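Fold it.
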Amino acid sequence: MSNSVTGSKTTAARSVDLSAAGAAAWLAATVFLALLAVYFVGVDQGAVSLFGSDMHVHEFVHDARHLLGFPCH
């Protein structure tokens, strides 16, 4: 009887970059995406829309806007 294991490899886990520059980049990207999400859900109502008179974004998130307490009428 043989107790050998064939094909087993050990891989090292990569460490996460926690430098100040890396943390600042992640923070900036997260803040940008959060502000973009707040704009699309809470602010885009046609009058101040980035897309002019196109109301597709407004209608797509209409129920979520009411659920989160944003007025839109």
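The CA atoms of residues 41 and 61 lie 6 Å apart.
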